[in-house]
């Protein structure tokens, strides 16, 4: 438990102190956000706001994770594990893809960075490497960080995949979650605040899995997860880094996370869903991100079918802006929805445990 607090505290401090430094550096370099011309008119005033703030989130995450392990040496705590490093590696790889996308936008002074093909190559390449490695590194109990079985709160034993199908499945998860968070990142603080809530839920889930691990507490309802405590450190560090960044990203934002942050955080959700054996539960906990992505899919499908728009604009947080909701009202209400989704997910997680022990 101490390590979790250390991870969160270090990540929060690094993120909240580093972000204003990045604001000054990026502003001096002219790294200002380009705004889509077809968006809400009120957003045009945000043009030129420093972007790529996701760098602070990534550095904060790594600092919190590694710092907590350094402190843990003093009381013989377990060191970094394959699960934690693989999830952080996937997160960082997606962050690099996002950084390239942001940098191209800034250099060419346009709202489009990497081509769609280039972005997908980066996402899928990162996912393939993660999928291959996550089935390696067996521990003394024979557990690998990932499993070829689809999972809800634990592996569903009747649904197993071959190695190739598993790789394709992970690719779909990574592309879907990274794009979902990317689409959500359209209002000041919306993605950072929502991610904090989802990751906070996963701190509880991973710590519970550690406390009820089959390797140390065998019995009904125990969990076969390779490194749950280390994953709790990752979640705590990431949640705290998002909160530290949110201090500067809340409306009116002084910096945006950009694709550097949104793609990285989406990759983090995908990686956590695989390593914690909760791929289906993640859909509930991250329901706001799912809804944002679904609104874009529905908008395109309805328009191509009927030539009418389902929403005034997609992703659907813009629909409410164009319906005369104040931006801060949309943000706060969406945070509430994200909190409800996280709470419902935790309720489902605990109810499944009770069904196992009852």
Description:
The chain has 358 residues and is mostly helical. It has one domain (1-143, 155-357). Helices cover 67% and strands 3% of the residues. The chain contains twelve helices and two strands, in the order H-H-H-H-E-E-H-H-H-H-H-H-H-H. It has helices at residues 2-29, 54-72, 82-108, 116-133, 163-184, 190-211, 228-249, 258-275, 279-285, 287-306, 317-322, 327-357; strands spanning 149-151, 155-160. A two-stranded antiparallel sheet has the order 1-2. A hairpin with a 3-residue loop joins strand 1 (149-151) and strand 2 (155-160). Helix 3 (82-108) packs parallel to helix 7. The relative contact order is 0.16. The mean pLDDT is 92.
* H/E topology pattern: HHHHEEHHHHHHHH
* Derived structural class: mainly alpha
DSSP summary, beta strand count: 2
Mean pLDDT: 92
Integer tally of domains: 1
Low-confidence stretches: none
Task: Count every helix, treating DSSP H or I runs of 4 or more residues as helices.
Answer: 12
Q: In order across it, which strands form the biggest sheet?
A: 1-2
Tell me about the largest β-sheet: 2 strands, antiparallel
Strand content: under 5%
Query: For the CA atoms, what is the radius of gyration?
Result: 20 Å
